[in-house]
Amino acid sequence: MQAGKEAKGRHSTMSESGKPILYSYFRSSCSWRVRIASCCPGKWSQRLSRPCCLPSLLALALKGIDYETVPVNLVKDGGHQFSEEFQALNPMKQVPALKIDGITISQSLAIIEYLEETRPTPRLLPQDPKKRVFVRMISDLIASGIQPLQNLSVLKQVGQENQLTWAQKTISSGFNALEQILQSTGGKYCVGDEVSMADLCLVPQVANAERFKVDLTPYPTISRINKSLLALEAFQVSHPCRQPDTPPELRA
Q1: Which of 90, 115, 160, 239 can bridge 97 by disulfide, Cβ–Cβ 3.0-4.6 Å?
Q2: Percent of the chain predicted with pLDDT > 70
Q3: CB atoms within 10 A of CB 140
């Protein structure tokens, strides 16, 4: 079956289910941010032990959302994000995109902010305005100042022989600033001792740093917070190695 037809069939089936639909790619750090906010502790063990359940991700934990996933392969056949069907969902041709409450939202931080405003428990943005602005500052630093500079579209432009050096340089530059900020804002997590939107941005970016073999020794605060977050089950089950579209050789 052709990729476009397969995606269309899944789209119509999931629309009939009435559940929100997350268009995602297993390795996309932007998609991972959203997945972290939508994992279900009550179904985690079932999800990990039964691969047939993976396309239907039940969410009762961080935001209590029951949603389904449509994988969008960013590499195969030149990238399924460039299909006419997906461009109709997101003209920027990027993941994630979320269909929920009768609308389609793109951009991970916009999605998280919408979920926060419509499903405010538990909080991912602190009530205290100073803490809240720190969460947004850190989230924007990662989502706008680091990740876009080392994503797939940029790496294609710098050339195969320059990709590793470019990614290491851009991530290290951002982490130099982030480490300094987290030394003043951090507690157990990025801002104090409660999980926030900033933490949803941090963990995927550290995974990117590890994938590009960035030396994390100069960043003890980043490493400490990341380790604490990875101990939480929501971060574990949303990991790229445990997604419906994860290649067999990358599964954990």
Answers
A1: 90
A2: 83
A3: 13
d(CA 71, CA 73): 6
Retrieve residue 128's tokens.
């205290």
Q: What gap in Å lies between CA 148 and CA 208, rounded to an integer? A: 11
CB atoms closer than 10 angstroms to residue 144: 11
Give Cα 200 distance to the centre of its chain.
7
Q: Please give the pLDDT value at position 161.
A: 93
Calculate the CA 236 to chain-centre distance.
12
User: Rounded to an integer, what distance in angstroms lies between the CA atom of residue 158 and that of residue 140?
Assistant: 24
Strands (E), 79-149: 97-100, 103-106
Phi, psi torsion values for 22, nearest 5 degrees: -105, 120
What predicted TM-score, i.e. pTM, was given to this entire model? 0.81
Residues 21-54 as b/e (b if ≥16 CB within 10 A, e otherwise) read bbbbbbbbbbbbbbbbbbbbeebbeebeeeeeeb
For 94-117, what is each residue's pLDDT tens digit? 888 999 999 999 999 998 999 999
Can you tell me the distance from the alpha carbon of 162 to that of 119, in angstroms, rounded to the nearest whole number?
43
Indicate the residue type of 48: L
Given a contact cutoff of 8 angstroms between Cβ atoms, the answer to whether 46 and 110 are in contact is no
pLDDT at 17 (0 to 100): 62
What pLDDT score was predicted for residue 5? 36
Q: 128 vs 117, 121, 137, 197, 214, CA distance in Å?
A: 16, 16, 14, 14, 34
Strand partners, 32: none
State the CB neighbour count (10 A cutoff) for residue 100: 18
- Does residue 10 surpass a pLDDT of 80? no
